[in-house]
Sequence to fold (80 residues):
Amino acid sequence: MQNRIAEYFPPDGTINIVALCTLRERYIVLYDDAHIVEAKRTLGRWASNPELSFSWVNAADLCAKVRRMEREKTAMRKAR
Fold:
């Protein structure tokens, strides 16, 4: 039997994580560098869903974390 989980991981094995944890809920996004846009879209969809307590402020905060992580990775690559 093949390991099907490996199909979901990027070739370099790097998975990024941003999360918002409240007392009653946890919102977690896992994404690789090739899917940053999709991760941000997911945050927007959550914010626009009235059934969730995830707000546009929450989405903006987590999008800012995604951008900051992206800048840090770029800086690390340039430093090598």
About this structure: The first strand starts at residue 16 and ends at 21. The radius of gyration is 15 Å.
